[in-house]
Design a protein that fits this description.
Elements (H helix, E strand, L loop, with lengths): L1 H9 L3 H41 L2 E5 L15 H10 L3 E15 L4 E9 L1 H7 L6 E4 L8 E5 H7 L6 E7 L5 E12 L4 H6 E5 H8 L7 E6 L5 H14 L7 E5 H4 L1 H39 L1 H9 L4 H37 L1 E2 L4 H6 L5 E2 L5 H18 L1 H8 L3 H6 L2
Parallel strand pairs: 3-8, 5-7
Antiparallel strand pairs: 1-9, 1-10, 2-3, 2-6, 2-9, 4-7, 6-7, 11-12
Helix pairs in contact: 1-12, 2-10, 2-12, 2-14, 10-14, 10-15, 12-14, 12-15
């Protein structure tokens, strides 16, 4: 019965109902698209950082990220490797040697972060081999170097040119090595391209004089969403093997990419604020609509009271009308939002005119909106609740009416 009454009352003034319904539809569709674009940007930024360098888990000597000294290599790293090989959730790992120094050409020089890699293993933990735009990925032969397009422009060099890398070794002596450029890459992050170059791990070890040691082990797991669990399992496995973990740290990408995780938190909070603003706008619209509806039906409400309908039933009836309005508007708005989202998720949004800004944030020129569970829940829950809450005040006004006065109301 309540549903029939609610539908009849909503259709009593079609124009007013359509106005508030339209505002709900537009609000739901707009927030769905806004949230999905933000989710796509954040996910792309995170994935780009993981695939370019950070991997799922990194292992270092304790304090390495705070102060990347040449002497901060992983103690007895081969024991760590033995443990990594036994963990079923680890799909790949690669050893790295990291040094800071100078790269010079005949025309210029630049500060660099030199990464000594095992080329074949590195392919399994990062996508740097897919980012080569000129030449080829290093084969593993000594004295090959992979630099970025930005670095090549700064040094005024090209494929086949020779460059000299210099860095201080473990004793403070500056060593140098001559390299030939075999490849030029372009990553998704402009800041990364400014400094990172790749050389064979043996060359990096020779320059730094660290013997058969490594600065970092990059690890890829079977699930990026379970890295904290895997970190705990790996730490326990290292302890159980007898390895002294006091001088070693295991970091997930969430810990290594603290700034991006902070941006994700900001996005979530911003989304809540946006939804609250839209919900408040709809709330006041519903209050106004339902108040007008109540005043138009004062006589009707008085008759219902006089024949014995309880106040709680009248209250529920008015709230139900508003909830139905919000529910219909949300469903239609969600469908409209999905219809807009589908082509955007397939073709993406081209922001190439802002390529420099996009690159500085680690984003591609094309953003693909992403519809995740949180976006769906927010879109489907917020508006019906807001409209139901908006009906509380008009419903309260209705049950405050005296039956005799209400029936005589003109």
């Amino acid at each position: 019965m309540f549903f029939k009454i609610a539908i009849r009352n909503l259709l009593r003034n079609k124009r007013r109902t359509l106005i508030i319904l339209s505002s709900i539809i537009i609000g739901v569709a707009a927030t769905l698209i806004y949230d999905s674009i933000n989710a796509g940007m954040i996910d792309q930024m995170l994935v780009n950082q993981i695939n370019t360098y950070y991997s799922h888990i990194q292992i270092h000597k304790k304090g390495f990220n705070d102060n990347r000294l040449v002497t901060s290599y992983i103690p007895e790293y081969k024991k760590v490797e033995d443990v990594l090989k036994k963990q079923k959730y680890i799909t790949a790992y690669s050893n790295r040697v990291i040094a800071f120094g100078m790269l010079s050409s005949a025309n210029s020089s630049a500060g660099i972060s030199m990464i000594g890699i095992e080329p074949e293993r590195e392919k399994r933990v990062s996508d740097i081999h897919k980012m080569v735009i000129e030449g080829r990925y290093p084969s593993g032969k000594l004295n090959e170097i992979l630099i970025s397009k930005r670095m090549s422009e700064k040094l005024e060099v090209t494929l086949g040119d020779k460059v000299v890398a210099m860095a201080a070794d473990i004793n403070g002596k500056v060593n140098s090595e001559l390299f030939r450029i075999v490849g030029i890459y372009r990553s998704h992050t402009g800041e990364f391209d400014k400094v990172f170059v790749y050389v064979p791990i043996e060359n990096a070890r020779t320059i730094l004089g660290i013997g058969d040691n490594v600065s970092e082990i990059a690890v890829i797991t079977s699930s990026a969403d379970s890295t904290f669990s895997y970190k705990k399992q790996l730490t326990n496995a290292l302890k159980d093997s007898g390895y002294k973990t006091a001088d070693t740290e295991v970091l997930t990408y969430q810990e290594s990419l603290a700034m991006i995780m902070y941006l994700i938190d900001i996005w979530k909070q911003t989304s809540i604020i946006i939804y609250l603003i839209i919900a408040l706008a709809v709330l006041f619209g519903v209050i106004n609509t339902m108040l007008m509806s109540v005043f138009e039906r004062v006589n009707e409400i008085g008759v219902l009271m006089s024949i014995g309908m309880k106040n709680s039933a009248i209250f529920r009836m008015i709230v139900l009308e508003a909830f139905m309005l919000g529910l219909v508007g949300t469903v239609v708005g969600f469908i409209v939002g999905i219809l807009i989202y589908l082509p955007l998720s397939h073709n993406g949004i081209n922001l190439g005119i802002y390529s420099e800004s996009m690159s500085s944030m680690g984003l591609n020129n094309i953003i693909y909106p992403e519809l995740n569970l949180m976006v769906i829940i927010n879109s489907l829950v917020v508006m019906p609740l807001a409209t139901a809450v908006g009906a509380f005040y008009p419903a309260r006004k209705a049950i405050k009416l005296q039956p005799t006065d209400a029936m005589r109301y003109v």
